[in-house]
Structure prediction request, 149 residues.
Amino acid sequence: MAESHNDTPKNPAVGYEHTGVDLGPILKFAGGLVILGIVAFTLLWGLLAIFKHQGASTGTPPRVLARGEQERLPPEPRLQMAPGSTTALKTPDYETKQVEQQWQSDLNSYGWIKKNEGVVRIPIDEAEKLLLQRGIPTLEGHRDAATRR
Prediction:
């Protein structure tokens, strides 16, 4: 038996949609989005103009990047490695090393502590030698409980 190729479907209940997509709602939605975008842009542009006018009338300082080099620096005291600090471009332990060097210098050199009262500083090695020669100084009347027998 030969099949016939005519345009009638074998199953009349099964078919396809003969119409295309309805463009009306899609175009209305796209037009609404465009109108909403234009309205939002206009409102924001007006708000920006209001803010610029208010900023100019209050005399606010210029932004940080518009300021000069000195005006950009943070207030004193500045942290280590901060722009404008005396230790800029040095290691974070730079100040600690300076203090330790000063302590070593104080421990190993002669110098005045209170010049008006005649108090001097001597090197630690010399002080140890003097302690061994003279003994540990004590105050009169203040002795250890162990030596009061």
